[in-house]
Every structure is written in C-alpha cells, then in structure tokens.
Amino acid sequence: GLVPGLLNVGNTCFLNSLLQGLASCPSFIRWLEEFTAQYSTEHSKSHENQHLSVTLLQLLRALSCQEVPEEDVLDASSLLEVLRVNRWQISSFEEQDAHELFHVLTSSLEDERDRQPRVTHLFDVHSLEQPETTQKQISCRTRGSVPPVSNHWKSQHPFHGRLTSNMVCKHCEHQSPVRFDTFDSLSLSIPAAVWGRPMTLDHCLHHFISSESVKDVVCDNCTKIQAEGILNGQSIEHQRTTFVKQLKLGKLPQCLCIHLQRLSWSNQGTPLKRHEHVQFSEFLVMDIYKYRVPVHKPSPKTPEETPAAKDGTAGKPPEAEQPPGTKPLFMNGASSSSSSFLMSPGTFPLAAFPECRAPLYLYRLMAVVVHHGDMHSGHFVTYRRSPCPRAALAAPGQWLWVSDDSVRRASLQEVLAASAYLLFYERV
Q: What is the CATH number of the domain that holds 285?
C-alpha cells in the first residue's frame, strides 16, 4: 500500500516533495497521457527524453503505482536534466523552493505545447502520408469550414485558472471592463492573526479577494459627465477619482494548487518565516469566491426557466448562491460543529446540504507539502493520498507521509495538523 520513495541527490527534497504532490492528482496524470500521445513511438528514446512531458509522466506514473517500478527508490534527476536542456538554471546542490519549481514545470509545459506546429505544412509529405494523421490535425486554406483543431492543442493543463479584476468608481459607480488574468496556483498571504481565534484557509481566501481602494485613477465616465455640463470650446481635465478594486475567480481549475506565503520581513529588512498553523479541511467549497456576472434587474425564475449552467449542472440565479451580507454555508478549515463532518475520511456527504445550496465547486484534498526549518535552511516533506488499489480496499482514504526515500502511513488528523506550505486539491 506504499508508494516508491525518491532519492535525494543533493538538496533535492524540493523536487521530490513536489513530484509526490503532483503524483496524487489523477487529473494531471491523465492530461499528461493525452498530451504525450502526440509523440510518435517512432521517435528514439533519446529524442523523447528531451520532452519534459514524457519524462514527467514516467515519474508520476511510477509514483502513482500505475507502473511497477524496478526499485523501491526512484531517481528524479532526469527531470532536472530536461529542465536544464530547456535553459533553466537549476543547481542540484543548492536548496530551492518547491512552489517556484511548480511554476517552472507548468510554464515549461505551456512552452512545449506552444512549440508544436498547429498546422501541417504542405511540404511535409512524410507527415501527411502517415496513417495516424487524422483530418482534424490538418488545416487547409479553403472556402469551406476548417476542421476543428485536435483536442490536446486547445486544452490547458488542469492547474490553469483565471482571475477576474473588477474596478468600480466610487463617485459615479461606473464599472470598468472586467480584466482576466491567468494563474497556475493561488498564492495567499496569511493575514494578521486575531488573538484567541484560529487562522483558517477561509480567512486567507477572503483576504485574497477583499476589495481595496485605488486612488487617483482617471474615470472616463466622470470626465464625460463633466464635459456634458460645460460649454463647447473649453478644455476638459481628466477627472481622477477613487476606484474600488476586487479580485474573484473567473475560472476555477480542475486541480487547485494553493500556496500559503510564509515569507515575511522584519523591521530591519531580514527575511522571516511565519510558522503559525492555518486550518484547512479535507473538502473545500469555492462557490463564494467564484466570479458571477452581475444581474442589474433580477427577476424571480422557476427552475424550468433558469438556463442550465455551462458545466452541465442545474442552473440557478447567481444571487441565490451567496446573498450579499450573509455568512457562507460553513468555513473551510474551521473546527466548528457545523463542519466537523469534514474531518472524517470518506465520501463528502452532499446530503448534508439543502438542495438549493449544494456546492458546485467542491474540491477534495489530495496532497500537502510542508516545509520544516527557517528561511535559510530546511526540508520539504509531503502528505499524500495512497493511490494503490490494495490500500484503498483495506482503508479508504489512506494517507502517506513521504520524506525523500522514507515512506510511512499517516492519519488524516496528522495531515490536517500539518503546517501547510502547498495544498493540492482536485475538484470532485
């Protein structure tokens, strides 16, 4: 019921801990399998090893018990070699950051996808003659409809999400166009603790999306209103007002990586690590952080009149999901009696929710990366779910503690008591 460990070849615990966390996300492994299917088996092994996706998939399949490894301890240094081929300067003997490496991997996978040709060149006769080349992989300049592009060119990796940035003028309440920014992980700062109250993951998420005032911003609408009241021929100065800015999650990913920022600075400018515990739970509800298109004149609709949501679930008015000024259904990570059932392993009890308030964006904890030590030295370990079928039959929701080549079983209570640095959730 255990997974293979990873050899530490010189301060590579940052790499080993991240790989164990990624190996616990089945959606990411499935995406890699679909992505690497583009590479022909005719390629030589040396050529395949230059592809980050192929090397990463081989390691994750072995760490998720999909392939039986020859040894109990694997060597992941081949991944560092591929990253060096892709011009990343990573030293094997210097301590690195697991979160930084996560962004190196996701950005390198995006670069690898973008490097592939989306259109087959007409002079590439050999490629056109291959029987496995489907019509969908060939685009032609014709007057007719162009065949759809193959799926693996369009699909983003499962950690890809989008943030929305909303700006509203305090003076005239004019809303600027919503901006969208991509993210691979949510990097949350830990707000100042209130004495006697535990810090929860919800506190960090609310702090992340809390509105802030931005002063001295040019408002086109205020300038236009002033221009209408002034006679022609006079110069109009741009009206600068205060805007309210708020972040929301426009697109939630299939796999959600949450980074808790534990770096802080003293008054003297020296880096410090924040060691306080942030409570998190096995299941995470993200509905209240999701961006909804504002409805100016809401009208009551029956369930039959409400259009279905894009993800196939039953549609409902956006304002019914989280009325303004009300508390969320429960706090993610809070240890109150209303959410105590979250601490128990097994299937999430959806029956505990009223039918109208069932969460649409429900996530399950898959792995936790923990950093022991201070800002100058330390060690990364990982708590992760056991992927082995035998372990699942014996004990549903079995957790493992992995430190390089050391692997042992762990309880869910031990996992939830850890001082998390990276949290890996997967959408249910």
A: 3.90.70.10
Catalytic residue flag (residue 379): yes
Over the stretch 55-84, which tens digit does the pLDDT of each residue have?
Answer: 999 999 999 887 766 677 888 888 888 888
Domain span including residue 177: 1-40+49-112+158-291+359-388+396-427
Q: How many other CB atoms are found less than 10 A from the CB of residue 330?
A: 20
Q: 144 lies in a domain?
A: no
Neighbours of 350 (CB within 10 A): 11
Q: pLDDT tens-digit profile of 78-106?
A: 888 888 887 777 766 667 889 999 999 99
The answer, yes or no, to whether residue 321 has pLDDT greater than 70, is no
With 0-12 CB in 10 A as exposed, 13-18 as middle and 19+ as buried, what is 236?
A: exposed
When pLDDT is averaged across residues 122-135 and rounded to a whole number, the result is: 51
User: Could you tell me if residue 196 is inside a domain?
Assistant: yes
pLDDT for residue 146 is more than 60: no
Q: Is 315:321 a contact under the CB 8 Å cutoff?
A: no
d(CA 285, CA 280): 11
In a domain, 219, yes or no: yes
Q: Tally the domains of the chain.
A: 1
Contact indicator for 184, 206 with CB cutoff of 8 Å: no
Under a CB-based contact definition with an 8 Å cutoff, are residues 9 and 77 in contact?
Answer: yes
Round to whole Å and give the CA distance between 372 and 209: 29
Task: Report yes or no: 1 and 85 within 8 Å, Cβ to Cβ.
Answer: no
In angstroms, how far is CA 237 from the centroid of its own chain?
A: 43
- Catalytic pick from 13, 25, 204, 219? 13
pLDDT at 419: 93
Which helix (H) or strand (E) segment is 180 a member of? strand 179-183
DSSP symbols for 398-428: -EEEEETTEEEEE-HHHHHTS-EEEEEEEE-
The answer to whether 295 and 305 have CB atoms below 8 angstroms apart is no
Threshold 0.85, pTM exceeds:
no
H/E element holding 182?
Answer: strand 179-183
Q: Smallest Cα–Cα separation from 330: which of 355, 303, 352, 297?
A: 352
Q: Which pLDDT score, from 0 to 100, does residue 243 have?
A: 85
The position carrying tokens 């014709």 is: 142
Which one is catalytic: 152, 171, 174, 379? 379
134 within domain boundaries? no
Residue 345, judged by CB atoms within 10 A of its CB (0-12, 13-18, 19+), counts as middle
pLDDT score for 133: 44
